């Protein structure tokens, strides 16, 4: 494929933007080659600056469950923009989107909008510490919760891609209150809480981790964490920035029937615009300024255009028909892949949960922990990624990320993708 313009633009970008990007994982560092500059997207397709077309499964890392430039979402943005972009005052759309979020997540009795997933997790943890008066926070290895200092400890996503679980610039003072435990290890958590439980303000976790590929919770694990939090008076924060409105309208909480005390959201609730949110039990949320002593603020929080995009998106998800369609698309994908996956079953594992999937180059039959992920061949993933690109399929440029099917992916897109996977696996394996 001709990528001349992307290369030219990248050479300009690296003069002024660190790594030529505004978010590290976009830099293609773990898959090699030059990042591709996109020009336009519609439905399941994206077109790069050289005019090459791809079927997209990165989907802006999760927000675009309706696909690119959904007509209703675009129209809602246009209508909102004509009335002004931002007022720094309350706006009716904030109430509307908040109620839509709460309708989907019964555990969210009150919610505060921010501008990113990072802001939502950072604020939720400050709130949990303010509410409990305790300092320590537990996270699980390989889960990524954005780039707040105290969470850049054994994180996944971009950091896992660079294989540097800690980040420079995070002081030991900041990291010392963050305990990192293995995911899916209830015994380990129980043991840790026996010692540290009295000092732990919160446990934050991706119920279904999607930043080290796709890791599935073992049966009873999430319920077990819930019970340990109840026993020790610990605030359970489910980081549903990816899971929320993806696994089901009510995210992992609806999907697995486990309620969190606080929930963080992002991505889908902004419909592709910058929106994050944290919310939960009213007795906790009432501690947030201006009602309570825990401070948190944001110039563009609840921005009316972003709210409008979120409202248009959640409106289409509310009738739930889309989730049935996504399930069928995901099944079609797996069925079409079956022969190739069987042929190469010693070399590649296809993991899938609803419309989330990942390809891991390993002979393992299941990925249940970061240690399992570390045994995967990321060099092979890089070759796979390049092969798929050459066949017009855009996967997230990292073996630690996941792919997303949207309601805009048609059966013929999925069949074409499965053919491309079959050819790519044949070539690289
Ligand atoms: P943002 O600050 O990037 O909006 O959200 C941080 C975040 C929080 N929680 C979870 C579970 C997340 O997955 C994320 C961000 N996800 C990554 C990719 N998986 C964003 C991509 C990027 O960093 O560019």
What does this protein structure show overall?
- The chain has 15 helices and 14 strands.
- It is of the alpha/beta class.
- α8 links the parallel β7 and β8.
- The protein is globular and about 55 Å long.
The appropriate CATH architecture of the largest domain is: 3-Layer(aba) Sandwich
Radius of gyration: 21 Å
Globally, the shape reads: globular
Q: Percentage of helical residues? A: 25-40%
Query: How many E-type strands?
Result: 14
The residue-averaged pLDDT reads 95
Largest sheet: 7 strands, mixed
CATH class identity of the largest domain: Alpha Beta
Roughly what fraction of the amino acids lie in strands? Answer: 5-15%
**SSE class:** alpha/beta
Query: How many helical stretches?
Result: 15
Bound molecules: ligand KE4
Order of strands across the biggest sheet? 4-10-9-8-7-5-6
For this structure, the quaternary state is: single chain
**From N to C, what is the helix and strand string?**
HEEEHHEHEHHEHEHEHEEHHHEEHHEEH
Termini separation (Å)?
22 Å
Stretches with pLDDT under 50, minimum 5 residues: 160-164
Domains, number: 2
Name the CATH homologous superfamily of the largest domain: Type I PLP-dependent aspartate aminotransferase-like (Major domain)
């Amino acid at each position: 494929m001709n990528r001349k313009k992307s290369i030219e633009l990248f050479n300009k970008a690296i003069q002024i933007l660190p790594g030529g990007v505004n978010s590290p994982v976009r830099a293609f560092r773990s898959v090699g080659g030059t990042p591709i500059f996109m020009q336009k997207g519609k439905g399941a397709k994206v077109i790069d600056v050289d005019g090459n077309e791809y079927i997209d499964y990165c989907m802006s890392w999760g927000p675009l469950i309706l696909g690119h430039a959904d007509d209703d979402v675009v129209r809602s943005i246009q209508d909102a923009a004509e009335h002004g972009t931002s007022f720094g005052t309350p706006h009716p759309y904030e109430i509307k989107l908040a109620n839509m979020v709460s309708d989907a997540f019964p555990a969210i009795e009150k919610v505060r909008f921010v501008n990113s997933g990072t802001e939502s997790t950072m604020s939720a943890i400050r709130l949990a510490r303010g509410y409990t008066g305790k300092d320590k926070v537990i996270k699980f290895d390989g889960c990524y919760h954005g780039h707040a200092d105290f969470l850049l400890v054994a994180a996944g996503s971009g950091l896992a891609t660079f294989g540097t679980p800690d980040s420079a610039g995070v002081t030991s003072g900041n990291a010392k209150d963050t305990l990192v435990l293995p995911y899916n290890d209830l015994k380990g958590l129980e043991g840790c809480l026996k010692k540290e439980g009295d000092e732990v303000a919160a446990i934050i976790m991706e119920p279904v981790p999607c930043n080290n590929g796709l890791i599935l919770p073992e049966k009873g694990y999430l319920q077990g964490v819930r019970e340990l939090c109840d026993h020790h008076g610990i605030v359970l924060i489910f980081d549903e920035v990816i899971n929320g409105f993806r696994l089901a309208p009510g995210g992992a909480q609806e999907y697995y029937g486990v309620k969190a005390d606080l929930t963080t959201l992002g991505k889908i609730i902004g419909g592709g615009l910058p929106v994050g949110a944290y919310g939960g039990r009213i007795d906790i949320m009432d501690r947030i300024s201006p009602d309570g002593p825990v401070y948190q603020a944001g110039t563009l929080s609840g921005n009316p255009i972003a709210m409008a995009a979120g409202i248009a998106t959640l409106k289409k998800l509310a009738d739930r028909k889309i989730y049935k369609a996504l399930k069928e698309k995901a099944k079609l994908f797996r069925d079409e892949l079956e022969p190739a996956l069987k042929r190469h079953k010693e070399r590649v594992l296809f993991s899938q949960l609803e419309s989330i999937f990942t390809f891991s180059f390993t002979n393992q039959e299941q990925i249940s922990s970061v240690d399992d992920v570390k045994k995967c061949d990321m060099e092979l993933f890089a070759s796979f990624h390049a092969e798929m690109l050459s066949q017009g399929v855009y996967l997230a440029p990292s073996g630690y990320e996941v792919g997303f099917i949207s309601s805009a992916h048609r059966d013929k897109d999925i069949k074409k993708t499965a053919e491309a996977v079959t050819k790519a696996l044949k070539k690289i394996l």
